[in-house]
Design goal:
Blueprint lengths: L2 H14 L3 H18 L5 H7 L6 E11 L7 E6 L20 E9 L2 E9 L1 E4 H9 L2 H7 L2 E5 L7 H13 L3 E6 L5 H7 L5 E5 L5 H8 L4 H13 L2 E8 L7 H13 L5 E6 L5 H6 L15 H10 L4 E3 L3
Parallel strand pairs: 2-6, 6-7, 7-8, 8-9, 9-10, 10-11
Antiparallel strand pairs: 1-2, 1-5, 3-4
Helix pairs in contact: 4-6, 6-7
Bound molecules: iron/sulfur cluster.
């Protein structure tokens, strides 16, 4: 590769590489292999070279044949790293923006042994595209596609944008499952490559939002208002969490907000369940929900209330 081409490519990738997390990934993952491939590179070019080519993302899972993350049969790619820390999070292993290790015990012949496991791995974009494209037949036959979920995919905007744009070039339907917590300019840059946005709406009161998720909802609500005006297809997702999001006050405020979103017509209710609480113990995370359970009939009541606003309400997510 010529030096001019190399530097042009560097600038392109560096431009796409918005977040500190992505910069760290490029530094850690690309340096050794790139420098090995180019032993004659001058020292002054080496720093630039770190950003080149084998763009990598940090993910923790890929689910094939997913049916609750958008239309049809989908592949869901779970990005690792989330700026929120919701009390009820079903994937607590998704929150840290780094590969984590933990020790678990395995039993064999009546003896127990400690075993080191890792959560999360770096994946090159070409490899991820290969996996996404391997299910094309299912997308075509079912009207499905790929869903970028997490964690928060918008924490790795450069990798997300490039992957989504490659999917669009291959005529693969793309959905973005997001908490909405990202700078608006990042969201605007990625939207052209996204067909459907699955957008979480949790708590309207800002102080309570901060208490239960760790961040303010101001940026989230601004992004929601922008999306409502954008004409992009948006499905809202409302997690029904006992004593937190299903309070009378929050439901009243959510309904009030929904009546103002005149272009958004679909909301999915996500039911809280405690089966993932075991993960908190396994991964040594603080479990703030304890043994709370959703009362029977709670989902049906909320569904009715939202339907009375003329919304299409789903409960399978
Ligand atoms: S936004 Fe989603 S992934 Fe992030 S902490 Fe909350 S529930 Fe978990």
């Amino acid at each position: 590769m010529s030096r001019v081409l190399l530097i042009q490519k560097c600038y392109h990738i560096e431009f796409s590489c918005h977040s500190r997390l992505e910069k760290q990934i490029f530094r850690k993952q690309n340096a050794r292999s790139l420098l090995k491939e180019n032993p004659k590179l001058e020292i002054r070019d080496q720093k630039l070279f770190l950003y080149i080519a084998h763009m990598k993302g940090l993910i923790f899972d890929i689910k094939h044949y997913a049916i609750h993350d958008g239309p049809g049969i989908r592949q869901t790619v779970f990005f690792k790293g989330c700026p929120l820390s919701c009390w009820w999070c079903h994937n607590p292993e998704s929150q840290q923006p780094e590969v984590e290790t933990y020790t678990r015990t395995k039993s064999l012949d009546g003896q127990t042994y400690p075993r080191q496991d890792t959560i999360g791995y770096y994946i090159a974009m070409d490899d991820l595209m290969g996996i996404i494209q391997s299910d094309t037949i299912f997308y075509d036959e079912s009207g499905g596609g790929v869903t970028f979920s997490g964690g928060e995919p918008l924490m790795q905007p450069g990798f997300l944008k490039e992957t989504a744009s490659r999917c669009k070039n291959s005529n693969i339907h793309t959905a973005l499952d997001t908490s909405g917590y990202a700078e608006q300019k990042i969201l605007l840059e990625i939207l052209p490559f996204i067909d459907l946005v699955l957008f979480d709406l949790k708590i309207m009161d800002d102080a309570l939002h901060q208490q239960y998720t760790g961040v303010s909802n101001r940026m989230i609500l601004e992004n929601l208002a922008m999306l409502n005006e954008s004409g992009k297809e948006v499905h809202l997702r409302f997690p029904v969490i006992p004593g937190i999001t299903n309070t009378e006050k929050n439901l009243r405020e959510i309904k009030n907000c929904l009546t103002k979103l005149n272009h958004i017509k679909h909301i999915d209710l996500l039911s809280y369940h405690d089966i993932s609480r075991g993960k908190y113990k396994r991964f040594g995370k603080d479990d703030k929900m304890g043994s709370q359970k959703l009362k029977e009939g709670s989902m049906a009541l909320i569904k009715k209330e939202f339907e009375s606003l003329g919304l299409q309400v789903g409960t399978g997510g």
